[in-house]
């Protein structure tokens, strides 16, 4: 069914309103696309239109995580973006974008000598296919204990989501919904790539691999690594304790035997000390001389 001219006009007004930000002082700032997706190494344009400003001053700022930088100041591209970005009255254009350009760009318009102000933000997403993920999978785990498997990928943009496979079979996020994994107890974090068994069961032995995808290019999978779910070796622990006690007993017996045979006393008998007996001299006259002290060795 064709829309009447009046209906079409209302639709265009509604669409523009969703992309428009009213400005202080009567002006307005808007964009044709609030989210721009473009492949890496391709050109990109972020639009910024405004009305109600007689002498506008335009600035663009870039926010990525906790980092903020100026792309354009007072209608001029800053030094760090010169040669890569071109400014115009309708937006900014990149000659070629990289994954580091992904983030939020805000167009801020002010009136020179006036109070009018308005801004609009555009989310630029540089599309990069994921690379082969790296995994950390233990070769064995103890049944009844908590075991964590991790998977990571650093290059994909937007950030990829993670999937896990056991013996080549996709693991559902809820194991109870699958007959194959109904006896397992695990959780999968599709955003961080963690696979946590809590606790590990005998059914969890197998070869595990991780796959990442972000809608760009093809999904990438890691190599498969085998995880063995093993029972706690109680017999081995008991044997180790017994051997330790036996060795400790032999050590104590050896010390006692050496002491009882006098090995420790003989070392003290080999050295004798000399005694010195000294007696104080008694009073005597100046003309009298005789031995008044004696040394006995």
Biggest sheet features = 6 strands, mixed
Q: Report the portion of residues in β strands.
A: 35-45%
The total beta strand count reads 22
**Number of contiguous helices:** 3
Please give the order of strands in the largest beta sheet: 3-12-11-6-7-8
Shape: elongated
Round the mean pLDDT to the nearest integer and report it. Answer: 84
Task: Pick out the low-confidence regions.
Answer: 1-18, 291-297
| Range of helix content | 10-25%
Spell out the helices and strands N to C. HEEEEEEEEEEEEEEEEEEEEEEHH
Distance between the termini: 134 Å
* Cα-atom radius of gyration: 42 Å
- What's the multimeric state? single chain
Assign the structural class, choosing from mainly alpha, mainly beta, alpha/beta, alpha+beta, or little secondary structure. alpha+beta
Overview of this protein structure:
With 297 residues, the chain is α+β, with helices and mostly antiparallel strands. Mean pLDDT is 84; it is low at 1-18 and 291-297. It is elongated. The strands form five sheets. Strands 3-12-11-6-7-8 form a six-stranded mixed sheet, with no helix packed on it. Strands 14, 16, 17, 20, 21 and 22 form a six-stranded mixed sheet that branches. The chain has three helices and 22 strands. It has helices at residues 5-18, 234-260, 263-269; strands at residues 20-22, 28-30, 35-39, 44-47, 49-51, 56-64, 67-73, 76-77, 85-88, 91-94, 103-111, 117-127, 134-136, 140-142, 147-152, 161-166, 169-170, 186-188, 195-197, 206-213, 220-221, 225-230. A hairpin with a 5-residue loop joins β1 (20-22) and β2.
